[in-house]
Design brief:
By secondary structure, this protein is an alpha+beta fold. It folds into two domains: 145 residues, Rossmann fold; 161 residues, Sandwich (Tumour Suppressor Smad4). Helix content is 35%, strand content 29%. It starts with 17 loop residues before the first helix and ends in a 10-residue tail after the last strand.
Length: 335
């Protein structure tokens, strides 16, 4: 089924150097590989990638993640090598891995490639990158730079979303269930139900949007930077289109009870969240959030849980990410 998601949205600024363009087409590939993402055999995945790149005459070096705490450091090493040898930094993993590697790449001048290995893969799917390892690797060989918008939360990069309140708790509980029962959308859905049943607290926020300060009570504040994800849950087209205009989209849930929260979850599953009366959505370039009487707060950034000092500042990064996007013939249907 063809999606109505705007295809391959790009920020207004799309400039990059001829050196970056040459690296994208001819430079060595430095692959930050997270074998913990997805469910496929890691050894087979690496062997397949190496075979495809070698057969195409493209030099490749794998930097394997053996300890998740070393991901950021390994990503920086990949960037340093790519800068020295005029190459491409490639992230092979789920949205969390891709986001962490992108944070190291942003502003480096290096092209950025993606080989999706996770469960949801919103970033790769929104940019028409094939989800299978073989197809994604072959598509990368013929890909070209196409800059994409980046969001920041207190200076930390996000490609898909960032949030506070109930949504980070949903993600944290989901990971706990996955460790026990494995990765699947069914596990994710039922872990969400349990979290909603136990949910009690509300955030008391002061929000500054373009100099206008409002007070808000909400169980969760969600900021989206991925048109595919927003479309899938049913956010209206105007808010989705705002992403292509250099903006982010905020979604806040009004104070409601457990059963109403369950109703919102079901609306999100069937793509009707934007129709809900208990949802407020808005677009912005910079948003300052001050939780009352809270100095540190739990956040989620592209699926990774982090504690941050307040106030929280959500904004669009000034620089774009130099993403390697497949040629027209290699693009996957955005679905």
């Amino acid at each position: 089924m063809t999606s109505n998601v705007p295809s391959l949205r790009r920020p207004a600024s799309t400039s990059y150097s001829s050196k970056a363009n040459d690296a994208a087409h001819n430079g060595p590939l430095f692959v930050v590989f997270n074998p913990g993402a997805g469910s496929s055999d890691a050894g087979q995945e690496r062997t397949l990638m190496e075979k495809i790149f070698s057969e195409a005459g493209r030099e490749v070096e794998f930097l394997r993640i053996t300890d998740p705490s070393q991901l950021a450091q390994t990503a920086r090493q990949a960037v340093e090598r790519a800068q020295e040898r005029h190459g491409v930094v490639v992230a092979a993993g789920g949205d969390g891995t891709i986001s962490a590697v992108a944070a190291a790449v942003l502003g480096s001048g290096c092209p950025f490639g993606v080989l999706p290995q996770g469960t949801f893969n919103y970033f790769g799917r929104a940019n028409a990158i094939p989800q299978g390892t073989e197809a994604a690797a072959r598509a990368l060989l013929g890909a070209s730079i196409s800059p994409v918008q980046v969001g920041l939360l207190n200076g930390r990069l996000f490609l898909v979303n960032a949030s506070v309140g109930l949504y980070p708790q949903l993600l944290e509980d989901r990971e706990s269930w996955k460790r026990k029962l494995g990765r699947s959308r069914v596990v994710a859905f039922f872990s969400g139900l349990v979290t909603l049943i136990q949910a009690r607290s509300q955030l008391d926020l002061q929000i500054d949007v373009g100099g206008k300060v409002i007070s808000m009570r909400t169980p969760t504040l969600f900021v989206g930077n991925n048109d595919l994800q927003l479309t899938r849950v049913g956010i209206d087209n105007a808010k989705v289109a705002a992403l292509s205009q250099g903006l982010l989209t905020g979604i806040a849930v009004r104070p409601i009870g457990t059963w109403a929260l369950f109703g919102l979850l079901m609306r999100g599953v069937i793509g009707r969240l934007g129709d809900a009366e208990n949802i407020d959505s808005f677009s912005f370039r910079r948003l300052t959030v001050k939780p009352r009487h809270v100095k540190r707060i739990k956040t989620a950034i592209d699926g990774e849980i982090q504690w941050m000092n307040t106030p929280l500042v959500f904004e669009v990064a000034q620089e774009a990410l130099l993403l390697m996007v497949p040629a027209a013939a290699d693009r996957a249907e955005i679905a």
